[in-house]
Amino acid sequence: MHAHAFPLLVGDVGATKTVLAVVLASPHGIAMDRQTVTRVVSTAFPHLRDLVASYLTTQRGPRPRAACFGVPGPVLAGSCVTTNLPWKLQGQELAASLGLEQVLLINDVAALAWAFAHPPLPAHRLLHPGNPRESASKLVVAVGTGLGAAAVVETPRGPAVVPTEAGHGDFCPKAPEDWELASWLRKQVGNVTYEHVVSGPGLVRLYRFFSGQSLASDLAAAHDPGAWVVAHAHDNPHCARAVALAVTYLARFLADLSLVTLPLAGVFLAGSVTAGLVPWLRWPEFARAFQDKGVHQELLAQIPVSLVEDPLAALLGCAYAWLAGQESLTAGTR
């Protein structure tokens, strides 16, 4: 690592868990000390500042001078009101309270996308090959407690990441069963979004829809109800129908976003729910639902779909995002 490497705190903040680490970042590369990686339950702390302060007391190496956190929600002017967590975050306030020079907040899926903006790409497993084009855009989608997406686009000055809140876009029914589901959900959640049906909680909603709202006792007691639905898809018909429909809806969601972003370099799927759905994501039915876009069926067939297998990819992405921000500041002073 270059002598001018900068100790940087990076964090992947999720509604369920937060992963933190210290990296040494420089324009010449990023080095992560895996011994600094820590996973904590997000809701065990009243605020991100408390979570990070607790983490810093456990670290014995060089103290980080700055931080970049991927957070669940839209980041506007350095601030974020997190979705699925009761936190109001402001970068300058976090920096002051933690004794850091700077805290950069970015969307959590944008953090993951930054990891795919620079070679070598994080470890990933190909699910559907397509016909990729290296210089084209990429689409990164994470399915967990929520549903998020971000795009990596190539520009004359290098790659850039476009965050989105696409998971909160309207769910679009197509078949009669979809319309029945949308009507049933609207009475419970109001405006029905893709996140309501493609996520861990979404799997539970689909299970309730098919089971007549009754919850199996094992599901009611499960630590992760969404994972329980996936685990019992082989022996519970309601779970099987819920998983099959969630995978179909995920394929449609990816297809809609692909028509917007044209990710001919690939779609990259991440998140705890996605990992459990891999057997179904390999189904021909998934590919058919993804490509079911009329005149653009052949276009979508060219897009490869992969599963992200590096659990620390978002941390590397935070480091890349911080470096990109520093480069922008430097360029602005020239």
Give the domain tally. Answer: 2
Task: Give the termini distance in whole angstroms.
Answer: 26 Å
**What's the CATH first level of the largest domain?**
Alpha Beta
- Tell me the CATH architecture of the largest domain: 3-Layer(aba) Sandwich
Total E-strand runs:
14
Radius of gyration: 20 Å
Number of DSSP helical runs: 13
Enumerate the spans where pLDDT stays under 50 for 5 or more consecutive residues: 329-334
* H/E series: EEEEHEEEHEHEEEEHHHHHEHHHHEH
Percentage of helical residues? 25-40%
Mean pLDDT: 93
Choose one word for the global shape.
globular
Q: Which structural class do the helices and strands define? A: alpha/beta
Per CATH, what is the topology of the largest domain?
Hexokinase, domain 1
Provide the β-strand percentage band.
Answer: 15-25%
Q: How would a crystallographer describe the biggest sheet?
A: 6 strands, mixed
